[in-house]
User: What shape does this take?
Amino acid sequence: MLLNLTALPGDGVGPEVTDEAVRVLETIADVFGHQLSVTRKPIGGAALISAKDPLPADTLQSCLASGAVLLGAVGGPSFDNFPSHLRPESGLLRLRRELGVFANLRPALCFAALEDCSPLRAEVVRGTDVLIVRELLGGIYFGEPRSTQGIPGNRVAIDTMRYGEAEIERIARVAFELARSRRRKVTSVDKANVLDCSRLWREVVTQVGHQYSDVKLGHMYVDSAAMALVARPVDFDVVLTENMFGDILSDQAGAVVGSLGMLGSASIGGAVGLYEPVHGSAPDIAGQGIANPLGAILSAAMLLRYSFKLETEAACVESAVAAVLASGSRTKDLGRSIWGPPIRWCSPKAGAL
Ligand code: IPM
Ligand code: MG
Assistant: This one.
């Protein structure tokens, strides 16, 4: 099979973790007899510097002409004061919208070898296997109007949270379908005690749920869900939630399972799938060869699974990740309690995937 990808390394640690993920895909292609073609294009801050646009037309065109897109990370402190349409993040948001990827899947799995890496006790995180299904093209990220108006000292800023029934229904279906291949439990997270958007969300999710009577549906307010995610993470199977709550809860889930550096993601449902680690550009550690590449590598596994339907190859990458961790290799973010066995620190390049 031809695996024709566009790689968007982006900013900060993006390029180094993307390189490692591409190396893994090269190995998979060799072993399983596929042909891998990777076109690298700029996005985010890198594209602002080279093309004065966080999503140049040429980058978008290449993505739309690919079988899948692998992205590193965007953003960095040097762009913090840029106007919002010229921030690196706006390039990523536009890309998500242009690709039409409304369903963002963020699995948070506690690998057996990492039970002691969580800030929570091992017995609390043991067996955690959560899939966050985050709506990616709606809510406060994209709602209009949005503006900052007035004179300094007296300005007012507005963002708009907006959801339509069709948008809620399509993401709910994704969550219920995925739950059928897992433990058949969906927890829908909202703030229905305060927000109209959330009341509509709860109503539509409940309606869709009636068509999936084999899946158990529960609802939680986001504050309570945040608490339960650290108190009893094993209770969650599929977490279905809107754009901003999903952004927040997925970082939290990263910490629960040991490190945000471990989380990969798939954004699907549109013309071309987009795969990116959940961690950001981590400018403080960029270029030092110490960034955890596993989030990017696990994103590459999801790319094989969802865009190319190569389940065996995807599972092979995931079991290689588990094996490397079981062998004791660690990047620095996976600090372990002083009572654990000795750690073999390694730079990602020395990893044996
Ligand atoms: C994420 C990131 C992005 C988001 C940023 C970089 C725009 O935090 O993918 O979680 O908020 O969606
Ligand atoms: Mg985020």
Observations:
- The CA atoms of residues 134 and 247 lie 8 Å apart.
- Confidence is low (pLDDT under 50) at residues 337-341.
